[in-house]
Amino acid sequence: MRFFSITIFFIFLILCNKNFTQGALITTDVSQHPIFINANTISTWDKNGVKVFLAEGNVKIEQGSAQILANSVAAWFTKVDIAQHVEGHMEIYCEGNASLFQEGIIENYEQIYLRLVTSAGVVVNPVNVPIKSFEEEQKTEVYLRGKKIRAEGREEFAAKEEPTVGPPVSISAEGEPIDIFADDIDTWIEKDVRVVVAIGNVRIKRGDETLNADNVILHLDQEKSEKDKPPKLIYKEMYAEGNVTLIREDDLIIAEKVFENIKEEKGIFVNSTIRSIIRPPIFRVETPVYIDGAEIKHRGKGQYDINNGRYSLCSYGHPHFYFKSSRIRIFKTPKHSIATAKKNIFYAGNLPLIYLPRLSFDLKRRAKILEDWETGSTSRFGRFVKTDWDVYSIAFGEKMDDWSDLTLSADYLSQRGPALGLDFEYAKTNYSGYMNTYYIRDEKTTDINSIPVPQKDRGQFLWRHRQLLVDQEKSEKDELPTNDWRVDIEISHVSDRSFFREYFQQELKTEKDRETIIYLRKIYDNRGITLLAEHQLRTYDTLVDSERLNRKNESLPELKYRIIGEPLWKGKLNFTSETEIAYQNRVFDRISPEIEEQFLGRGASLTAERVFDRVPVRLEPEETIRFDTDHTLNAPFSIMNVRFNPFIGARFTGYSESVRVNPVTQGNEGNGTPRGRILGS
């Protein structure tokens, strides 16, 4: 009889335990099936021997024939030893469009809290990103509500009402509300400073930021306001401690302690981790990166410094692989999130493998590290590989990426050798420009059409810059009037006259010649003044397959003043004028007879008449001063819808030297007498 009573007692105990864990919402026994959890994102951590799962987005929990759907789920899983086997017990809190499917019946709720038991384990399947593991609990609203229900020991329930949230203490600082949730809240005023102390399960919402912590102290400056109006509060300082999590834009900051000066946007995080997101196309999907340090300093808006920090893509508290750096800096703007690290050592576990002196990457950068590449084979280059790399995806982006682009060209041509180039393009409010360089150590002896390679080291340099000379105050306000001074600068150098024809035929055929000039102008109303100075860094035209292989004037400098359509005599007459004085080098291309034969003696495909403006004698470079003034007065009128525009004009042009004709050879020579000419029309 005693044995029978003990047996009945154990059976009753097991049934009671099973009834407690599975509860009444699931009406069929599905304990022999595993529990499947599917969701867009799933995170997990361990707390006091309990495995916690937090699932967000299209959550589906399935066990046997029973299914649960919801927007968000918090679940607590424990193992229980019963007799000779182990069972798993899971407590589940579901929230947001929650549905329960079983035995062909669908029931819809807003909240569901239930218990499941399984003897076959749990299978977790995140859809979008890998499961995220944390060492500290993640205090989301769903988790905190489920944690409270579980701590109260409540029975299973399913409710169609949305979860109720206790009324917060709301403070308005500078017109922006600050909502404070906590177990206990106290506030008082000390010397025109309102102090708010929140203790226990604190959650503070301000704009897009959410702060969770065990305890928080807020300081708000209290300024006097108008009569009969409450004082104005200014959010000044915040101190939080104990399981601190701060959600700020795309970042999640986890810390033991946090102090921030809100007014100056500065602060310090103790034993902290920053989780940010690396966006495509750097990786195919959004990938979290974890940056942690014993002390993280908040230097200003979007700026963080970490000494002796660590960063990794591994979400474990002790990551399997990571970089350890002497200093990490994070610089965030609306368009970019740039991390720069110095003295980096890559670890696999505890084993150091690689040292890199500097790393920099943009977590939001839209461009790829490898921007473009091309491979192929030609008779002139042999097999080749050409690549363009976005330098700011690797380094220097934290200071320059907002206003410039830097591209590194790294090429290899099997018959010519390796080549490198840099393209730097930039633009700010009052200036913009472009710099291009290319260098190759040419290993071949001849160019196209068997023209000898003039030198081994070949390349080109080009810088074009435009500057608007405006007041700093106007520049900062983006007020750029068009009638202020503007300067255009171009500096260029090409190693030899056949470089473009050999390596950059597209530029040869479509671009203007490379020059070295400074052009200053001011245009206001119908008047303008310009100053041009040019002096080339080489003695030949770079585009040899064009008509510009001939004489060309250099201005050192050239000053012009123009008036266009100035109305006179109550608008009946219009006056137009242009006056110029210039110091010029009137002969430019100094092609030698040998080079002329190589470039021009190629038959009908490129005739001398098409390319070269021949004169009886090639003149040596000579300078001359030129003065020119041209004036026109016109009187437009209409008769029977026919418009007439009679005009008169006068022009005077003078030179300090003229071309003198040798009476014996009839050839042109320099050093002629000064000469002027007057024209009328």
UniProtKB/TrEMBL annotation:
LptD C-terminal domain sequence ranges: 458-669
The keyword Oxidoreductase is annotated on this UniProt entry: no
Biological process according to GO: membrane organization
Segments crossing the lipid bilayer: none
Organic solvent tolerance-like N-terminal domain ranges (all copies): 193-226
Keyword vocabulary terms for this entry: Cell outer membrane, Membrane
Pfam families per record: LptD (PF04453), LptD_N (PF03968)
One GO term describing the cellular component: cell outer membrane
Keyword Iron-sulfur assigned: no
PANTHER family recorded: LPS-ASSEMBLY PROTEIN, LPS-ASSEMBLY PROTEIN LPTD
Protein name, entry field: LptD C-terminal domain-containing protein
